[in-house]
Amino acid sequence: MKVVFLGTNGWYSSETGHTTCILLDTTESYIILDAGSGIYKITEHIRDNKPIFLFLSHFHFDHICGLHILNKFNFDKGLVICCYKGGRDILNTVVKQPFTLPFERLSYKVMINELEEGYHNSFPFKVECRKLVHATDCLGYRFEFGTKVITFCTDTGYCNSILKLSKNADLLMTECALASGQKSVVWPHLNPEEAAEIAKRSNVERLALFHFDAVIYNTMDKRRLAEKRAKEIFESVVIANDGMVLEI
């Protein structure tokens, strides 16, 4: 199974990367995590005729701006978009004229699946979703592929949900929007020490940091400093950059 980081910035695209989009290439399906500006590169990696699922964490524009270019793709088996309850109305408000081409005008079928918190077994894999702590509603996801577990939690502060979702995971992908030691109560995010502490407490195999705030982390050297700070708490950590591929 491959994990491909197509966008690793938070807030906006810059020289350091595009906004959040990650692809899981599994045996039975493709899973896209968030639809930031990095989604335009998805066709470089989707080559097999497998079902495609897009899981959205929330609806801040840096995580859904890539929906504007869905007409760039031709998904033979269609696209299933998964989101929290109430997300259908939000999507149908944004993905339409005068903003962009509506779903019904695409060359393939789009289905929207609103998910309650908890476990779901209706996919070719198992998935658990929980509400995170952010300035707006936001979901974190835990995917189970046989004995392998991958957790995706972005745009969140330190909370019980991320600890539950990442417990004993083979890979925890979580955000690092804040600088070392920085806190934000009004707009919750994680700093590198908090992300590392979560990985340590959850007993994960590996931690990948992404969603680096484009202002705070305006150079790759600053990302490497975040990696250094995180490794003081949890050794098995990597900082994601656009184009990075992990094998699980």
Q: How would you describe the overall organization of this protein?
A:
This protein has 248 residues and is α/β, with parallel strands linked by helices. The protein has one domain (2-247): 4-Layer Sandwich (Metallo-beta-lactamase, Chain A). Helices cover 17% and strands 29% of the residues. The strands form 3 sheets. The protein has a 7-stranded mixed sheet with strand order 7-6-5-4-3-1-16, with no helix packed on it. It has a 7-stranded mixed sheet with strand order 8-9-10-11-12-13-15, with helices on one face. Helix 3 links the parallel strand 11 (148-153) and strand 12. The longest helix is centred in the C-terminal third of the chain and has 12 residues, at 220-231.
Average pLDDT figure:
97
Q: Give the uncertain stretches in residue-range form.
A: none
Order of helices and strands: EEEEEHEHEEEEEHEHEEHEE
Please give the alpha-carbon distance between the first and last residues. Answer: 5 Å
Give the DSSP E fraction (strand runs of 2 or more residues): 25-35%
CATH level 1 class label? Alpha Beta
Please name the fourth-level CATH homologous superfamily: Ribonuclease Z/Hydroxyacylglutathione hydrolase-like
Task: Name the overall outline.
Answer: globular
Derived structural class: alpha/beta
Give the helix proportion (percent range): 10-25%
Largest sheet: 7 strands, mixed
CATH architecture classification: 4-Layer Sandwich
Oligomeric state: single chain
